Amino acid sequence: MSHDVKALESKYVVQTYRRTPIVLVRGTGVRVFDEDGREYLDLLAGIGVGALGHGHEGLARAIAEQSREMIHCSNLFFHPLQGQVAERLAKLSGLSRAFFCNSGAEAVEACLKFARRYWYTQRNANRTEIVAMEGAFHGRTYGALSVTWDEHYRAPFAPLLPNITWVPMNDAAKLRAAVSERTAAIILEPIQGEGGVRPISQEFANAVNEVKARTGALLIADEVQCGLGRTGYPFYFQKLGLQPDLVSVGKALAAGVPMGAALVKEEIAAALSFGDHGTTFGGNLLACRAALVCLDEISATLMDHVKTVGAHLERQLRALQSKHPAIVDVRGAGLMWGLELNMDAAPVHEAAIRQGVLVNRTAVKVIRLLPPLMITKADLDRALGMLDAAFSEVLAGAGVAN
Question: Is residue 163 located within the same domain as residue 289?
Answer without folding.
Answer: yes
